[in-house]
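Reviewer 2 asked us to include a model.

Predict the structure of this chain.
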Amino acid sequence: MRVKQQMAMVFNLDKCLGCNTCTIACKNVWTNREGAEYMFWNNVETKPGIGYPKQWEDQTKYRGGWIQNPGSDKPKLNQASRFWQMINLFYNPVMPQMEDYYGKGPFTFTYEDLHSHEPTKYSQPVARPKSQITGEEDISIDYAVNWEDNGGGTHEDGTGRHDVNFADMTPAARKAYLSFRDSFMMYLPRICNHCINPACVGSCPSGAAYKREEDGIVLIDQERCRGWRFCVSGCPYKKTYYNWRTGKSEKCILCYPRIETGQAPACFQACPGRIRYLGPILYDLDRVAQVANADESELVARHREIILDPNDPEVIAAARAAGVTEAWLDACRRSPVYKMVKEWEIALPLHPEFRTLPSLFYIPPESPVATASSGREGYDMAGGATVLPKLDEFRIPIEYLASMLAAGNTAEVEKALRRQLAVRAFRRNERVEGKVDAAVLKEVGLTEKQARHMHRLLALAHYHERFVIATTHTEATSSRPFIERGFVGFNELDAGKSPRRRTSFHGQGVGVES
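Predicted model (structure tokens):
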């Protein structure tokens, strides 16, 4: 057992407002400069839809992430072999183009026309769209980062038919769901997942992409980056971007300067819906490669298995031997991420079939309280029995959520949703009916204590409960004389340039003397 530290996250999709406050916070802090106009390290997509960039989920198009490698104990890059990388070093054929992000490119408007043009009595002054890259005016706008916002354009004749999450449904079922724009809709906020097994790191020929030893945050060394952009195509979530001005790749850094001072990342801090949770976890590095190579139906369960119990004496001993501080162990015990992912099993990874073992998990959304018109003054409860919808009455198809959050394993999604419904029913009985009925909890495998803690964390938690940030002693990691590399990537590295000790991901590391 090799214990490693990782900052992990949970987004509660049941509470996302789709307001994009998180997007604006991130954009203003990190990507408000030339060369980064089209970058959105944080974006909120409306589902169903093809997202940003177009069809990022379709790995038959972009060949990102990892694929199962039968006969081996570790997966292989979906992108290609290292030989293929070398012969295509200066031309990457599977990288998204500008039109996939922004149509004709990022644009602004000629706001100066509103002041400089002479006013007329025949028409209002108009600000015309203008390219932020070329300066060309009157460009046609046919796609943008929020093109599908609130279901706009997401229908059978629009972008919805290209949503890969309908792949397991029949064409008739997909058409039925997309023919009526109000049938279902959900928001999906996305940032870099800071994966345990990041494909961007494995794809980088120059070794510029790496994971920080002290907290598992994935970064790109700007000095070492050569702009080959294999990290862009290698990331299946398309959360690595190329800065056309600097010639370097950039990505979300999880606001690590804020984390190092005990503050939550900017997008977490700004979220008015309080959907975001941050906390440390421990995982077993020795088992990562094997788990990433597991069958699709087992990926979610196997992912949970490598997350270690911080209360287990054996884990504590191994963590201390690996240099994990008492502050980190204490934070791991209080981590909301550990509770939601490992203990309660209500949070799921986004597209686990990409085999990157993301450190960002999502609580699947429920349906709203269901009522039906009674024909009289007011409304009756749906079904005449309870105001809470049953699982088979949900608007969002379980198959759709399973395709997105569980590699098609509907049982994992149903378990997460049933546990949320059980807590809602338990609290409603207690607050409205005035009685405590733990039978509904027992049916889904929860205790009364767990249900109260879950309700507290999901509905009432304060700042320090949602964001648990451990004190990190960087002096213990900055002076290590070697870099640990993974089984993909290239090993010819200059260790003297490393600002931190790096761990590329799992195993068979190669020590490089400084």
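Residues 273-466 form a domain with the Alpha-Beta Plaits fold (CATH 3.30.70.20). Residues 410-433 form the longest helix (24 residues). We have added this to the supplementary material.
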